[in-house]
Amino acid sequence: MWNPVVLKRESQTLKKITPVITRNCWILLVNLWVIAGCAQVPQEREPQDSEFSETSIVVILADDLGWADISCQGSAWETPAIDQLAREGIRFTRAYSNGPNCAPSRACLITGTDVATHGVFTVPPATRGKAENRKLNPPKSRRVLRDEAVTLAEMLSEKGYRSGHIGKWHVGDDPRTQGFDVSIASDRRGYPKNHLAPWNLPDLPEQEAGTELADALTDHAVEFIEESGDEPFFLMLSHYAVHTPVQAPQKQIQKWKEKFPEASKRVWKYAALVESLDRSVQRIRDVLERTGRSRNTLVLFTSDNGGLESFTDNGPLRGGKGMLYEGGVRVPLIAWGAGLKGGRINSTDSVQLTDLAPTFLELAGASAPEPELLVGTSLNPVLFQQGALPERDLMWHFPAYLEGIRSIHGTWRTTPVSSIMRGDDKLLEFFEDGDLQLYDLKDPTEQIDLSAQDPNKVKDLRERLQRWRKARKMPMPSGPKDQ
């Protein structure tokens, strides 16, 4: 049988209103969630007859949705559909993106590789902010995936999967050039001009003025599932919500105004955007159940990075989008369907979005053309209660600058930095001045730097991080600038 990945390679060779809760209360709540997760007894869902033997896959990817932006993780926003998904599925409370902003996270997820392989380590340019405030020269980041990059759509096509990408792509001009059969509203842009119609997005028919973008994208996702018939499918429903501009219909704004009369209009609009994601989750669940495919379809709900601090506070977590602190990289992750034994909260395993590629490939019986490039670990032992994940280190590399939100951060959200997590220990290494910060994530607020108290642990983690960067040939900033 012909392999589209091989053919592709050969042809390319030729050419606010989270309630005001004290930090200590947040820590207590997190610990209570952990206890609840350990205490719950998994409940197996009733078996259902199904004509579908292969496992289909749906990824519902939110944009800039913070870890604490869903009500089952402490938010004041009402997300009943997402909460029900979590109650009946598996909620990972220590899930992480592979980057603190949109493009690198998405490139990692869709290829299963890291920033050294695909070259997209930030949303270009890496030289954000004023030059006189930068001490180092960051390397250049790619804007789009290389033509030879192999996506999940291409890997799954080996097993006959029909693939669709609906919504934000951000890593190229058209997902169809990277193996997707269907592409709607997907190009290089990182955010829409409008969340309310008209949208002017490729291959997305306009609807009545004021229609919410999340609803329109979900219309096409539902249609894609219905049209797939008995074929196995891979669907990326990649929302633009809740990325700026934060917009919502007046009736939705009024709803949240009545619930939170003391909040600002921007908060009401943000809550409405979160609600639009929740409606999308409900509709995807509904179509899977209506078509009899829920037991043979794995649904993953997650976000590409942490929440933007000017709109949300990320609960107990420090920082937000654009930072390697927990608020920038810890994200919601819920798995549902595919016959999973639900009602579980996993608060022990630290997982990354690059784990999704080996998970999906194993479910489909497919393989990567160069499996050694995949950096994640299959989650199937945990999903299907077949065993534990192996002990491992999680790594991040962000050799770029991002301007700060002045009222919150001052000059920078982040300067060039790498990070490593081993169990509950997390080390950040900042390249401008060699600053090393060590945190114990049993306290997710990252307010107490333990580096001076445990120099041996700092040394061990830093050496591990340096070996990883060297082995992976990670792009590094140069400097100082005057040399």
Number of structural domains: 2
> Measured on Cα atoms, how large is the radius of gyration?
21 Å
Helix- and strand-based class?
alpha/beta
- Broad CATH class of the largest domain: Alpha Beta
Secondary-structure element series: HHEHEEHHHEEHEHHEHEEEEHHEEEEEEH
Record the strand order, biggest sheet: 5-4-6-1-7-9-2-10
Overall shape: it is globular
How far from one another are the termini?
A: 56 Å
Which residues sit in consecutive blocks of at least 5 with pLDDT less than 50?
Answer: 1-51
- Named CATH topology of the largest domain: Alkaline Phosphatase, subunit A
Q: Summarize the main sheet.
A: 8 strands, mixed
Strand residues, percent: 15-25%
CATH architectural arrangement of the largest domain: 3-Layer(aba) Sandwich
CATH superfamily of the largest domain: Alkaline Phosphatase, subunit A
Oligomeric nature of the chains? single chain
Index terms:
single chain, 483 residues, alpha/beta, Alkaline Phosphatase, subunit A, Arylsulfatase, C-terminal domain, 8-stranded mixed β-sheet, 4-stranded antiparallel β-sheet, 13 helices, 15% strand, globular, disordered N terminus
Which helices and strands appear, and what pairs or packs with what?
Blueprint: H1 4-14, H2 23-39, E1 56-62, H3 80-88, E2 90-92, E3 95-96, H4 102-111, H5 115-118, H6 152-157, E4 162-167, E5 182-184, H7 213-227, E6 233-238, H8 250-259, H9 265-290, E7 297-303, H10 326-329, E8 330-331, E9 333-337, E10 344-346, E11 351-352, H11 356-364, H12 380-383, E12 394-398, E13 402-403, E14 412-414, E15 417-422, E16 425-430, E17 436-440, H13 455-472
Parallel strand pairs: 1-6, 1-7, 2-10, 3-11, 4-5, 4-6
Antiparallel strand pairs: 2-9, 3-8, 7-9, 12-15, 13-14, 15-16, 16-17
